[in-house]
Amino acid sequence: MSIKIFKNIILSYFLLLFFLVLLSFQYSSDELYSNGLQEFYVVFGGLVFLVFLYCLYSLYKFKPRGKKLFVPLVLIGSMLEYLIGYETYNRSDLERFLLNLEGVLVGIIFTCLYFTDLKKEFEK
């Protein structure tokens, strides 16, 4: 896989995250939080999101830090989404499609990082 394609995938993932954040504003706080830890989830989720944006920037620039941060941040984000507990049946078809596309892009990035020749770019 070429470097240009990998960078375009990273940019596509960044844009997808932007659209998912915009879609998340349609929910009220009552729908998003099923238990009483609202403030913790908002602060922790915001910090994880900011670190994840830095991780995407690092991946785009082929910095080894980005490769080390990617998998743990994806796992933390998935667990946080589960802990927040907003119901999947309330999601629109567009949101479901974008979330599935996010999973595909995460899989492509993970595969590029660990199973293609691009992994050598992070060792420089």
3D architecture notes:
By secondary structure, the chain is mainly alpha-helical. The chain has one domain (3-123). It is built from 5 helices and no strands. Helix 1 runs antiparallel to helix 5 (93-115) and helix 3 (38-60) packs antiparallel against helix 4 (64-84). 8% of the residues are buried. The mean pLDDT is 84.
Write the layout of secondary structure elements.
Blueprint (H helix, E strand, L loop, with lengths): L2 H22 L4 H4 L5 H23 L3 H21 L8 H23 L9
Helix pairs in contact: 1-3, 1-5, 3-4
- Write down the secondary-structure element order: HHHHH
Low-confidence stretches: none
Backbone CA Rg: 16 Å
- Summed up, the domain count is 1
The tally of beta strands, per DSSP, is 0
Count of separate DSSP helical elements: 5
Mean pLDDT: 84
Helix content: over 70%
Structural class: mainly alpha
For the largest beta-sheet, the strand count, sense and barrel status come to: none
Tell me, briefly, the overall form. Answer: globular
Amino-to-carboxy terminus distance:
17 Å
Strand content: under 5%
Can I get a quick summary?
This protein is an all-alpha fold and 124 residues long. The chain is 75% helix and 0% strand.
What characteristics describe this protein?
5 helices; 75% helix; single chain; mainly alpha; 124 residues
